[in-house]
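ok posting inputs for the magnesium ion job
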Amino acid sequence: MQAKLSVRNVFKIFGDAPDEARERLERGETKEEIFEATGSTVGVQDANFDVGEGEIFVVMGLSGSGKSTLVRMLNGLIKPTSGEILIDGEDVASCDAETLRRIRRSKITMVFQHFALFPHWTVAENAAYGLKIKGVGASERRERALKALGQVGLTAWADSKPSELSGGMQQRVGLARGLATDAQILLMDEPFGALDPLIRREMQDELLELQKTLKKTIVFITHDLNEALLLGDRIAIMQDGRFVQVGTAQEIVSEPADDYVAAFVADIDRGRVFTADTVFNDPEAVVLGKDTADVAMRRMEELNRNALYVLDGKKVAGVVTYQDLATATRENGVDGDILSKVLITDYPTAESEHQLADLYGAASAGLPIAVTDEKDRLIGIVEPESVFAQLSGDETSEPDADKPSDPAMQRKGDANV
Amino acid sequence: MFSPADLLVIPFDDWVNTFVRGFLVPNFRDVFRAAQVPITATLNGLDGLFQWIPMLVTTALLALAALKWAGRGIALFAVLGLFFIDMIELWPETMTTLAMIITAVLFCAVIGVPLGILAARSNKLWTVTRPILDIMQTIPSFVYLVPIVMLFGVGTTPGIIATIIFALPPIVRLTNLGIRNVRGDLIEAANAFGSTGWQMLWDVQIPLALRTIMAGLNQTLMLALSMVVIAALIGAGGLGLVVNTGLGRLDVGGATAGGVGIVILAIILDRITQGMGEANGVNTVSLRQTLMNLFRSRGSQPEGETKKAG
Ligand SMILES: Nc1ncnc2c1ncn2[C@@H]1O[C@H](COP(=O)(O)OP(=O)(O)OP(=O)(O)O)[C@@H](O)[C@H]1O
Ligand SMILES: [Mg+2]
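and the output
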């Protein structure tokens, strides 16, 4: 994947003694020690990462860990003490004011925690702000602002003042203002932090929905791990200005880099992090009209399972249980038609990116869950036990060893530039 | 008893005399004379205009302005007050005073607003400007009347210059304050979208500071009105002259008549400019609305006072 944004060895030290602070950092002193000794605050230390085109990169950390400082350096609102920040190859950290302005106008835009809408303008004028700055004419400006407002579902409010809108709606205006300029990179500093939980959830879903079509390159700041896990293609965990771990949600939850991260992930909802593809097995199945009940039962014995999927051609026909087959053969003898007789066509299905939390109900029913692709082909089977094992964090019942080559995992893994 | 004066007497007054008489006056008199040309021109233009417009028309215009920005009560007051002024035969003097005030305020705004904006953008400039404004506000105006007379002569224009010096500080201060108080995140947002300094100023800073700037203008106007009598000491005309003449002749009636004229004018102008400030202030709308919502959610009607809150 092409890196849209590259951050190389970026440091930010607030205060008069950046050099001394750097030396002390290299000697391994902590942020507090350095502050006591020099009065300088370490904002960000040695940040290195790339964000690929279309990726959502989430930076998460506690208050004061340097998230805002980091994200403000990306569009030059704060100058780094040292290091490079490359946007399409241009260094924001060292370019002149004119170049920086051009980059801000065309390539990178920002959504703020407290919305930062201009109170003296209407919603449409706010959304059109970036275009106004660029010198776009009034009628085109309005047209494009309305389009952006349409994307966030606020067309009807175009001529209201921001103060007439609720918090969630105001942040949609903030988002529309960012979208209207067509900048590829979107910086979001705790954009949903000031919203109440229900609205926040709604906005998160909406952002993901928008991202499916817009494919922006997003750097998203949050201090809410659940939000990070939900939104992030990759997540960086920050502590005292340093990245302690960068990885996908699943990597961070299943292999926390240190105790700090482990403490964070200890009580998150694993069902919302892990998806069906983390627990599914090979799509073992028998074929209708070809395999007999006998074959099916023997396969189940070999695999040590008590149900097996039945295919009709390439499509899934249904599922048969060992018990039903056994009863049927006892009553009718071994006959080719038994499979279709005991076939359960009302079987549970899921897609590979479905969260385990959503499979919980299906898993409770006891039948294995068929994981299908968009063409309804069977690509894996989730045993109910492995869902529960994954949810409880029990690593012993990992699915087959070929897991890393799962197509969906491959997709996520690609994000690691 | 010993006192420091036994040791050394500093001829401070002589120094000032030498500086003003020996240096400023001979070297810069022409510069100062030239500087008052635009003021004189503005003043004469306005005075001529106000004297030319029929009294009833001026009254109607002021009453309409009062109606638009300050409400019915003030409009009625304006009509009655101006009629009263006309009936005590002070109309021409009142119009001269109005022309003087407007000229002074105009020049205060032209100097003060840009200065305030610059001061808001540079802490260095502000550290220099601030003590100067403090001095301008604390120094008794009589102190600079003499040098003004020496440099500019006597007459209405020197009177206006004294008025400008006296009335300038609030507009500078409040412009500076208004610009500095624009919310930091809005400035950050404007920067993040790549705005230039000018775009920031026109789109964000001035509109959002306008309410405060207007409050400064209102204060400047009030200070200018309070200088009317003092300016008359160095030859300015208008209502101040009426008061001074009355004072000189111990004519209580004449002095009071002039004083009443000034008060009436002051009330009308104060209320109109205050109202304009609130109408322009973008925050008023939201503030008023927030307060109204607050009252509404508590189940009672929004009150008239909320209009003036903040
Ligand atoms: N302008 C500044 N001058 C000095 N120190 C600063 C400045 N801005 C931030 N800091 C310090 O840098 C550190 C990181 O601050 P930052 O605002 O980036 O944290 P954050 O992760 O965004 O926190 P929050 O979640 O509270 O927004 C803090 O210790 C803060 O005190
Ligand atoms: Mg922050």
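notes: The pocket of magnesium ion (ligand 2) is lined by residues A 67-68 (CB under 6 Å). Chain B touches chain A at residues 183, 185-186, 188-196, 199, 203-204, 207-208, 282-283, 285-286, 289-290 (CB under 8 Å).
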